[in-house]
Design goal:
- This protein folds into two domains: about 10-110, Jelly Rolls, CATH 2.60.120.10; about 115-175, Jelly Rolls.
- Strand 13 (about 140-145) and strand 14 form a beta hairpin.
- Helices cover about 0% and strands about 60% of the residues.
- By secondary structure, it is mainly beta.
- The strands form three sheets. Strands 2, 3, 4, 5, 6, 7, 8 and 9 form an eight-stranded antiparallel sheet that branches.
- The protein has strands at about 1-5, 10-15, 20-30, 40-45, 50, 60-75, 75-80, 85-90, 95-110, 115-120, 125, 130-135, 140-145, 145-150, 155-160, 165-170, 170-175.
- It is built from no helices and 17 strands.
Amino acid sequence: MIIHLPALQRIPQPWKNGGGVTREIAVFPDGAGMDDFQWRISMAEVTESGPFSRFDSIDRHLTVLSGRLQIDLPDRRQVLNPGDSLAFEGDIPVHATPLLPVIDLNVMTRRGQAHAEVRHIASGVILPSDLVFLVATKPMIVTANGQRYALQPYDALRFEGLEGEPISSGDGYLIAF
């Protein structure tokens, strides 16, 4: 099964801490809220400095898609440029300062219930697992199961139980559960 998830159809939602807006790409179980998801994929726009929302028992993986973001963790400071990622526990204090306005990709998994791998891909084969999401960062063409999908920036495809391996031409991020 392949589901196209266009970026233009995502509904803005306030951050848990009220400091910004996120757009959910997918969540499991379907319809789960911030307190009961097993995994969640979203994109956010970061334009102001402030603390990250705290998520107890959640592992987070943040990838900067555009802009530049300074992250202050309890033990270090890290600056993320486009394509840079950072994995951290959601229950530690984190402060972010956008050095340039940021769009980021967020993957959150409930510790002990789900695990995700996030990796950058360029043109080539997408190695499927039981459940894979592809988020395009630029216009991208994906061919899978005899169908051709034209993705715009930040569109996503959800692949589930595929036969064969999809082929992409373009730039994006894979999230495999």
